[in-house]
Specification:
With 610 residues, the chain is an alpha+beta fold. The chain contains 20 helices and eleven strands.
Length: 610
Amino acid sequence: MIVPMYKYAFLVYHGGYAEFLNDLRNLGVVHIDKKISEPTAEMQELMRRISDVKQSVKKLDWFKSSPESQATGFTNGEAVYRRIKEIEKEQEFAQHQLARLEKEEKQLDPWGNFDWDHLARLESAGLEFRFFTCPAKKFESQWTVDHYISIVHEERGYYYFVKIDRKGEDLSEFAELPGIEQVFLPQSSLGTVRAEIKELQGNIKNLHDEMAQIAASSKGMLIGYYDSLRDDFDSQNALQQTSGQVEGKVMVMEGFVPETRKKELDEFLDKKQVLYIASPPDQEVKSPILLKNNRFARLYEVIARLYDLPNQTEIDLVPYFAPFYMMFFGFCMGDAGYGLLMVIGATLAKPRVPKMKDILSLTQWLGLATIIFGSLTGTFFGIPLADANIPFLESVKKFMLDTNKLFNLSLILGAAQILFGMFVKVFNIKKSQGFRYSFATIGWLILIVGSGILLGLKSAEVVAKPAAGIIQNIILGVAGVLIFLLNDPKRNVFVNIGAGLWDAYGMISGIFGDLLSYIRLFALSISGGILGFVFNQLAVSLKPDNIILGPLVMIIILVIGHGINIFMCALGAFVHPMRLTFVEFYKNAGFTGGGKPYTPFEQNISVVTE
């Protein structure tokens, strides 16, 4: 459900306004109404700094703390942040230098560790040394006769050689020979370059170790600095949303408070003798959205937030799509063994990862649904139980569904969700616009559900054919009036008829398309079972005929194969039910969305985990 909001207007004397904001932050219940959306230049700078510090905190998460960690000597989070930025610059410079030196090392390596000073002395005596490479296939031995050439190295089909000439000799004729390429080497020796590389690598390691020390002993300071920046931003935002009245003597600010915390705020305001006005907001006012659901539905709020929050005039659809999403996930996974792994894994992880308690609880429920649907399909780690010769399963095999029944079940579940969505739409329209505007939806429900029930009664021979015809005409008449004449109480009849015909076209074509979308449940369930069976067959057929290697190879194939299949099935089972929820169900339930989350003005406290 959506928690009702109250809109407050606070009137505070300017001299005590700073203290009032601080008290309001400590209370942490008011969502400040954002009237001015464009942040000031100072706020924009704060936003950049907050984002930068957040990235630095994430970077420290990469480092594991060690028992030998020592204090770094920082006194505040800002100093920690500045040192991290300095380290990042030093690391970036060192990496560029290292890349340059490694390139020079690669160039010098074939020529060996020679001293450029020796060459300089020879060149001063009138000689000139030039470096060349040539493919071994194109190198001609005659060159060593015609020229002063010394082959230094041969590697990967290339000759590296030095040509010695007197200064001033023309090289153009030799350099143009096929395959010849002159090389211009860095003016450093190989030994010097390697020594610089070693020194740089040591510096990079020291910088890395310093970051690890900071992560171990000063991460909390950095997080505190991050929280203080967020507090500063929130305070500036609160001041920006404040208007001055009575020549700036009275400060006026508006905000929203959930009904569940109204009493707490009223007691605080009365105690502080703050003048305020509180009232439920008008429908035209966009109030923030706070969802409050039971323990089961609350787990699915994380899925709903991936799409959009409802606005204040709508119904919270989370409790209504949660059971369907759970069923669809289990249908898509379709393997009881995979579901059992999910339940066991989530149960073991919950005490060890308390931050993910809700996600792991959701995984347990989805795993339970997978076990149930896997039992219906008769699949356990790719083994078709319906075909297995297991005595204690004989009595339950009759409940297992074949492919035809699975196909029909996917359509039945789809039809159930679509119709349920239309029922929800009636109440959604009633809440946002009024009951009269839901007549067209009611008409379609009467037509579809009434005709379906009548068809079932005729098939069971409960209703005679003449009576069935009369009842069908009544259903058509009532539905026709609601759909074509009363679809909008503010329009005249002729406009309503035209709009009803257009809506009828959209409804008839859309509802069949929506229904066919649910066939994906059947397809994903079958494909996962087939892949699991294929991996089982591969494991059996590829295992060597060896008492030790055979079982080992079989286990490796099964673990890798089923691991891949579980990943693919889980991905499909997560995405496709979500698509059915956000497209088919939300559309038929009349979801509009556009709600903004309730974010109270409060002290920012990040949780530090070791």
